[in-house]
Amino acid sequence: MKKLTDFKYSHVLVLGLAKSGTAAAKLLLANEIEVRVNDINAEEDEESVIALRGMGAEVIVGSHPIHVLDDIEVIVKNPGIPYENPVVKEAQQRGIPIITEIELAGQLVDESIIGITGSNGKTTTTTLIEAMLAKSNQPVKVAGNIGNVATDVAQTLTKGEKLVLELSSFQLLGIEKFKPGIAVLLNIYEAHLDYHKTFENYKNAKHTIFKNQMNEDYLVYNRDDSTLVDAVKKAKSQKIPFSVMQREENGAWVDETSIYFKDEKIIDRESIVLVGKHNLENIVASIAAAKLSGASNEGIREVLTTFAGVKHRLQFVDTIKNRVFYNDSKATNMLATQKALTSFAQPVILLAGGLDRGNDFTDLIPYLKNVKGMVVFGETAEKLKSLAEDAGVATTVMAKDVQQAVETAYSISQENDVILLSPACASWDQYRTFEERGNMFIQAVHTLV
């Protein structure tokens, strides 16, 4: 097992188990560090609880007693636990540092890390970069917010192997020394304000991806996002812009027919199979990061001429009687749904709804011009039904869940319609994850035939 190279703490509280907490606790224990684990939802007889106790950890489950902070020097916090948590608030008052498992992963990796963050497009861009490197015969693994625990993957890296990390704002809030050799900052829009409270806090969390970078590092950023252009001025790394609107002599850019890196043509746009203007931004960002990492033009082209999207992100599912079904369950905010809707010129039946975070959804109205019908579900169903009526959507139907929504959408559809699940909401009112919601959509589509 790889050792932590620069970890100065000897008594650690791992707050929250799940996959990342369990992995962090095991890593710390293997490095002979005293570990206390606290999880309010775990049960005494759970496999992870039993295993960690067997390795020497103190494990407290079922509540968050303040005494778990006694003698603690640092907290490794599950990214999903809010900072309003009583233990977290008390730790802040006591001046106890709070990090996430990503900080530990950074200490395990000798080779350069490629880190990707942004409000939207992270998973697609992460997947593209990994694939471009792999097709260029560059050894690479992927981890982070994409589903693979970073510390687990980092321990398996061989010499020369790169680590591509998808990084959420929740993860980035908990770093001290972590830095990617290549940071990719895609975009920043209002999101997760229930967690961060203000847009400024959210932006600052995203900006930490480059806070520890130095002159030998690279920062790939979206020149078309004015908030990013201003933010990256304080970065010490080499700035590599990407744009879908203007030529970039020192970055990646597009014209009407082709995509370029600096002055080198990479691929004809008509050869790319991934749909959507937002995906064009993801592609250009991916090319910049991949080229900086040593990817070949041939490897990049092979990916872009075959890659049709990641699961749950504008994923083509099936065509049934000339109706085309797309699963965009990862669209957990309005911006993502706006981008999905701009990807189609044909009539759309939109399936939307989920956790109510207080949004009024009026920003969706300009994007509903091609939407001939909406099937709404979840806590926000009434809000979205009212929105659809205000926008002049011809048909709006309420459904109890995604499966019924698919059946209803199919029943009101016609040939050449797109039936699109793009909820504009988190899934947690009815489903544990957006993946579970997307899988229900896929299953429901396949049962139509």
From TrEMBL:
One of its GO terms (molecular function) is UDP-N-acetylmuramoylalanine-D-glutamate ligase activity. ATP binds at G118, S119, N120, G121, K122, T123, T124. InterPro entries: Mur-like_cat_sf, Mur_ligase_C, Mur_ligase_C_dom_sf, Mur_ligase_cen, MurD. Pathway: Cell wall biogenesis; peptidoglycan biosynthesis. Transmembrane segments: none annotated. It is found in: Cytoplasm. Keywords: ATP-binding, Cell cycle, Cell division, Cell shape, Cell wall biogenesis/degradation, Cytoplasm, Ligase, Nucleotide-binding, Peptidoglycan synthesis. It holds the Pfam family Mur_ligase_C. Residues 116-290 form the Mur ligase central domain. Residues 312-425 form the Mur ligase C-terminal domain. Its main location: cytoplasm. Its EC number is 6.3.2.9. It catalyses: UDP-N-acetyl-alpha-D-muramoyl-L-alanine + D-glutamate + ATP = UDP-N-acetyl-alpha-D-muramoyl-L-alanyl-D-glutamate + ADP + phosphate + H(+). HAMAP family: MurD. Belongs to the MurCDEF family. Cell wall formation. Catalyzes the addition of glutamate to the nucleotide precursor UDP-N-acetylmuramoyl-L-alanine (UMA). This is UDP-N-acetylmuramoylalanine--D-glutamate ligase. The gene is murD.
